[in-house]
Amino acid sequence: METEYDYIIIGSGFGGSVSAHRLSQKGYKVLVVEKGKWYKAKDFPKTNWNLRKWLWMPWLRFFGIMKLTIFKHIAVLSGTGVGGGSLVYANTLPIPKTVFFNTGSWKDLNDWEEELKPFYTEALKMLGAAKNPKLFDGDKGLVKMADSLGIKNKFDTTDVAVYFGTPGVTNEDPYFNGKGPERAGCTFCGACMTGCRHNAKNTLDKNYLYLAQKNGAKILAEHEVYNVIPVNKTDGSQGYEVSVKTSTTLFSKRKKIKSKGVIFSGGVLGTVKLLLKLKEKSLPNISDKLGEDIRTNNETLISVSSLEKDKNYSKGIAIGSILNTDDNSHLEIVRYGEGSNAWKFAHLPYVTGSNVIIRLAKIALKTIKSPITYFKVYVSNSWAKKTVVLLFMQTLDSTLKLKRSFFGNMTSTLSSGKKPTPFIPESIKLVKEYSKAINGISTSFALETLAGIPSTAHILGGAVMAEDSSKGVIDKNNHVFGYKNMFVIDGAMISANPGVNPSLTITAIAERAMSQISSKI
C-alpha cells in the first residue's frame, strides 16, 4: 500500500465508484477505502438463512452485504461490501419526477432537471439499464389489482441494471467494447437482494469500479476511515492525512495515508456519522447544518403471502413492475429468491392502530380468528415462494435530523413535517387491494407493528447542497464548505425527496461532479 494519493474515496457505492472511475480516467492516483468485503458471484449466500454472509454485524463476526440500523424514527436497510448498495439493492433505475428538481435546499442553485439530463443518460448507459422483459406471478397480481382499481394504464415494467441476454449463458462483455468483465444472462431466480450468484446483476464492481481498477485505482477493502486531518493549513489546501483501520479483524490494524483530496461516499449512515465525529475536532469548519434535512421516500414495506398453491412469487427479478397509483405515490412488487425465508420470523400480522396496545390486541384477534392461515404463513409455506413485499413510496416531504450522542452513535430527531409512519392511508388501501388480488394475507416487520417505526432502504440527506454554509454542507459542485478539495458524493448530498430509488440520481449527480474536475494529464 502506497502512502500518498491524489484522492482518497471513502466508500465504494454509487458516488464513490463513479468518482473512482472518472478521476482515475483523468490521470489521478486514487484509493478507494471500503469497510465491507470483496464478494464474487460464488461468495454470495444461496439464501438469507446464511446470516453470516447476508448481514453486516461485525460484533457477531457477520460480514455480509446488508446492514440494518434502527433509530427512534426509522429502521434503515443499507449495503456493505465492494460495490456498496449495488450488491443488495433491487436494481431499479428510475428518474424522479419534476417536483424533485424544484424543491429542497438545492432548488435555486441550478435548473437541475435540464442540467442533469446528459448525466442521467450516461449513468443509464454505464449501469447497463434495460427494460424488464418478463412478468411473473407477483407482477401479474399487480396488473390484476390495477385493473380492479381502473388504473391499468398506470402499470409499467421497470428499468433495471440487469444483463438479460440468454438465461444462464456467459458472454463477453456486452457493455464496454470488450473492456469489461464477462457476463451471464439473468435466470429470473429472484435472488438479486441476497447477491446475484449468476453474474447477471450490473453491480458497481462490474462497471465503474472494474474500469477504475483498469485505470490504476486501488481498492482497500475491509478497512474504514476513522480520522481526516488537514495537513499544515487548516482549510486542507495542502492536503489531508487520512487514518484507516481494519474493519473485519478482532484487533484493528491502523495506518495513515496522505491525500491531496478526500471524497466522502460512505452513504448517509457512513458519511454523516464520520463527519459528525470529525467536526468535533479535526474538521471544525464543517457547516452546522450537518446531519439536517434527512429524508426517506415516505415509504412502507408490507409483505403479502398468497394462499394459492399453484403460484411461485419468488420468480422474476427483485423488482420487475411498478404501479403509479397517484401523482405523488407508486407501488412496486419486491421478491426474494426461493428458500430465502428468514424474514418471516421478523414479521407479525399486519395491523394498524394509534398505539401499540390497540395493535397488539388486533394481532391477537387476527391470530385467534385465523390460526390455520397464519400457521401456513409461518410454518408450512415456503415464505419467499409465496410472498411479495409491497414497496410503497411517496414524494411528499418530511425531514429528520441525525446527531451524535454522548456515546458516539447517531440518534434521530424530527426536524420538519410529520413523523415517519408505517401507517399511511394510501398504503393501507393498496395492501388490502393486492391481498385480494392474490388471495393473500399481510404481515409486516415487527418493529413497525410494535413501535410504529417504518423501514426504509432509501435514507438521504444530512450533507445537502445549498448556496452557503448557513443553509447546507456542500455547494452545487459537491465541494464541502470550509475545506479545499473535499467533497460529499453519495446519498447524503441528495437535497430533496426523489420518491423513487435514488441510485440512478446519485450516479448522475456524481457524474456531473466529476465532470467539473479537470484532467491531471
Supply the key terms.
about 525 residues, alpha+beta, seven-stranded mixed sheet, seven-stranded antiparallel sheet, 14 helices, about 25% strand
Describe this structure in words.
This protein is an alpha+beta fold and about 525 residues long. It has 14 helices and 25 strands. The chain has helices at about 15-25, 50-55, 100, 110-115, 115-125, 135-150, 210-215, 265-280, 355-370, 370-380, 385, 425-435, 445-450, 505-515; strands at about 5-10, 30-35, 55, 60-65, 65-70, 75-80, 130, 155, 160, 170, 185, 220, 225-230, 240-245, 255-265, 300-305, 320-325, 330-335, 345-350, 385-395, 400-405, 410-415, 440-445, 455, 485-490. Strands 1, 2, 12, 13, 14, 15 and 25 form a seven-stranded mixed β-sheet that branches. A seven-stranded antiparallel β-sheet has the order 8-17-18-20-16-23-19. A hairpin with a 7-residue loop joins strand 14 (about 240-245) and strand 15 (about 255-265). The mean pLDDT is about 95.
Structural class category = alpha+beta
Q: Compute the number of strand runs.
A: 25
Low-confidence stretches: none
Distance between the termini: 23 Å
Please give the count of helices.
14
As a percent range, the share of helical residues equals 10-25%
Radius of gyration: 22 Å
- What is the overall shape? globular
